[in-house]
Each structure stands twice: as structure tokens, then as C-alpha cells.
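Work Package 3 (structural annotation) set out to generate three-dimensional models for the target panel prioritized at the project kickoff. During this period the team completed the workflow that converts sequence records into C-alpha cells, so that structures can be stored uniformly alongside our sequence database. As a representative example, we reproduce one entry of 192 residues exactly as it appears in the project archive.
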Amino acid sequence: MLWPAAAKNVLKIGPDREVVSVYPYRSACPKAVWGELVESAKKEIFFGGYTNYFVFLDQPAFHRTLQEKISQGVRVRFLLGDPDSAVTRQREQIEDVALSVSTRIRIAQENLAKVGAREGLEVRYSADEDAVNHVGLSVFRFDDDALVCTHLARLVGHDSPMMHLRKRDEQGMFDRFAEHAEELWDRGRPAS
């Protein structure tokens, strides 16, 4: 009787076995985790945050890292919010912080320009009708790992909770969030 209870408390079973870690704040996730996930990706890197700017500030010479991953055949995608959209303006009013949402998107765009136009790098804006869903949930994929940040009320991304997921099951937590991100991507439009 005691052993199954003890084992169950130590070993993850069921849907929660895809949860590698949880962080009360995105900013509490060590920068090394981001770097290791990018480095270990062999097929795909997908940044599905509304602004994605922070990774260029947190990871040294990240544009060069992306160039190297692309040269290794890794597909790199960035899904951004449109800096000129109504949802972006509304989110700026909600957050009411000096570093505005549109500025954060433009920081990402400026750094993506350093990567350069090349096959293997794709950048899109979320569709207008999807922007409200995109601004509230960020999904960052690295092959079979994902970092998922659910944005709370008036908080900026770095103050919102985040989960690290690893694909273990079909239609598990990882797949649910990955499918959400893919739907936003498919409906998005090329960034200008």
C-alpha cells in the first residue's frame, strides 16, 4: 500500500509526465535552459511569443546562433504580433509600461534583420482575428521541447508563469500547445 503511493509521488504518470519544469515567472527560467534548448534543436525552432524580443537580449549574439542553426538545416520561425495593430495598441494600454509592446516587437524585427534573409528563416505576423489569442499565450518550440507562457491579466511576459514541456504522448500537453501555435502560424501573414 505504501510503495505505490510513494512511487506515485516521485514518478510522473499520466499527462503531467510531459511537464519538465514550471516557473512562477518566465524570467525565473534560467537563461541556460533557453540556450540549451536552442543548441539541442536539430529540426525546428519556433518562437511564438507576441514580441519575442527578450531572447535577443538574454542570449549573447543570438542572431549568429540562429544563422548557425539555419546553416545546419534547422527550420527557424518567428511568429510576431503586428506592431501597428489594434490589439498591440490595446495591450500597450493594458500593460502601461515604458517599453511598449510595439517597441518590443520592433526590437525583435531589428535583430531578425541581422540574421538576414535566408532560406530556413520565416517571420510572420499573427492574423488580425488571432492576435487576441496570440498576445495571451506564448509557445516556444525546440523539436520535442516547448516553453509555454500564459500571460496573466496586466502582466508583461517576463512576469507571467511558464511551463517547460517535453513530448511524451500523442495529444498530450505538448501536442495541444504545439497545435495551437501551428494554427496561429498557418493563419498568419508574412511580416513586412
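The helical segments are 2-10, 31-40, 54-58, 62-71, 86-95, 101-115, 131-134, 173-187.
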